[in-house]
Amino acid sequence: MTTSPSPAERTSTPEADTAADEATAGSGETSLRTAAVVYNPIKVDLKAIRASVARHAGDAGWGPTRYYETSKEDPGGGITRQALADGAEMVIAAGGDGTVRAVAEALRGSDASIGLVPAGTGNLLARNLSLSLDRLDDSIATAFRGRDRAIDLGVVDIERENGDRETKVFVVMAGVGLDAKMLANTNDTLKKRVGWLAYVDAIARALRDDNRIDVRYQLDDGERKSMRAHTIIVGNCGLLPANIMLLPDAAVDDGIFDIVALRPEGLIGWVQIWIKIVWENGVLRRSHVGRRIMAANSREVRTLRYNKGKKLVVRLDSPQDFEIDGDSVGKAVALRAVVDPGALTVRVPEHS
After folding, report:
1. Helix count (H) and strand count (E) of the chain?
2. Is 137 in the same domain as 158?
3. Same domain, 190 and 220
4. What pTM was computed for the model?
5. What does the CA dihedral 135, 137, 138, 142 come to, rounded to 10 degrees?
6. Which of 117, 217, 285, 310 has the largest CB neighbor count within 10 A?
């Protein structure tokens, strides 16, 4: 990514100033709503975004739009807070899942909404909200002409091996164990070339090791329990790329988490997980006939343990890889995840 410009450079442009003069002169209004675009310059075409914004913003009653570029030092959180300080009532996140998460984290607790211009490999939040994934103009139109929808956020406190603690927000899911190790093993160069196929290589490398972890956990205010698993995932919504429905009952605005622990024993265990997640959840569940087949034949398997709750506390037997919304965020020895209900307002199509 490029080096982030100074606040003065990135919060006002000649185009924005001109647009402000034209909007005020043309409408007689002095209090038009203000939008900002936080964009990853590596993943989006800024010229195309500007052209689309020019087609939709003014006609939808919005004033001039300001543009803020992410950088390696600031993947979106700092400049989103700057955009809010500059008066933005909507921040459009144009980039991958990391950009969306950084913007959402900064918007938490504010009255501003988030618009989505998906431009990554996963596009997890847009995918779960059934938003357009590859039509830029539709995404911009939804941001300026759509309606608000409140969704939940996940807030996770992370304890590191050295005792350091930090708090992060996730919009889709957070996981510890094999899925996080897989993400940590993903070759970034291969990912740029072949997208999600790069994870096949990462999974193969991750499965070479014994990935079982011993955990102690507490769900809500229940009793403390112990468990051995390969992966534990806490989800706000459940759909992954390739039409994989990991958490079929998850809802983005129900105020609770859906949680799954993967506990396969050998090849048969992995086959059971594949059948449950890919075939039953991803295929059969999507049709009336398929659901009837599931009702007659489906059964719970020991390799997958599902649960629900508003708070999950996990302590690990050793430092383990941890991921948030598809990004590896290092290793953790303990986690505490809670739901923040309705904490993020997302722009969705008017008639969705």
Report:
1. 12, 16
2. no
3. yes
4. 0.81
5. 140
6. 117
> Is residue 13 located within the same domain as residue 44?
yes
Give yes or no: residues 141 and 158 share one domain.
no
Find the radius of gyration of the CA atoms of the chain.
21
Kind of pairing between the strands at 62-69 and 33-39: parallel
Q: Are 248 and 285 in contact (CB under 8 A)?
A: yes
Whether residue 217 is found in the same domain as residue 327 = yes
Shared-domain flag, residues 191 and 277 = yes
Residue pLDDT tens, the chain, 352 long: 444 444 434 444 434 433 443 343 344 445 799 999 999 999 999 999 999 999 999 999 999 999 999 999 999 999 999 999 999 999 999 999 999 999 999 999 899 999 999 997 789 999 999 999 989 999 999 999 999 999 999 999 999 999 999 999 999 999 888 666 555 545 455 445 544 444 444 444 444 555 688 999 999 999 999 999 888 999 999 888 767 788 888 999 999 999 999 876 767 766 776 777 766 666 556 666 666 665 666 666 667 889 999 999 999 999 998 989 888 899 999 999 999 999 999 999 998 7
Domains of the chain: total: 2
Write b or e for each residue in 38-53: b if 16 or more Cβ atoms lie within 10 A of its Cβ, otherwise e. Answer: bbbeebbeeeebbebb
With contact defined as beta carbons under 8 Å apart, do 118 and 126 qualify?
A: yes
The residue from 121, 145, 169 where one domain ends is 145
